[in-house]
Amino acid sequence: MPTEIGQLVRRFTENVQEARPQGYLLQGSVVRRHLVRPSSAGDKRYGPYYLWTRKMAGKTVTMALAKPQAAIIREAIARQRQLDRRLAALRSLSEQIILAVTDGVSVRNRAKSAR
């Protein structure tokens, strides 16, 4: 196995080992927001409120959260995003390895036509 392919395989194996999540995984995003309402004494600020937004069956779903829930869900979302990046790297390495170790269709040189 050529050195370059060996390095690609080694990187692939390392990424597979690192791709194991260390906790729960969720998709979406968590936002912290405040509501501002006008009052006779000036604007009154309420909150913070925590919202978790994600897509389910093609629809956006939002859920109100308590502060402890928001922290846990934020961590799960961060783990999911990290896993997505690692999987993208694994797909890229897989493509490079497969194309390097297999024979493909030969490319023919086309003569440029004179116009």
Element layout with pairings:
Layout: H1 3-18, E1 29-37, E2 44-56, E3 59-65, H2 67-101
Helix pairs in contact: 1-2
How would you describe this protein?
This protein has 115 residues and is of the alpha+beta class. The protein has one domain (3-101). The chain contains two helices and three strands. The chain has helices at residues 3-18, 67-101; strands at 29-37, 44-56, 59-65. A three-stranded antiparallel beta sheet has the order 1-2-3, covered by helices on one side. A hairpin with a 6-residue loop joins strand 1 (29-37) and strand 2 (44-56). Helix 1 (3-18) runs antiparallel to helix 2. The radius of gyration is 25 Å and the shape is elongated. 4% of the residues are buried. The model has no long low-confidence stretch (mean pLDDT 90).
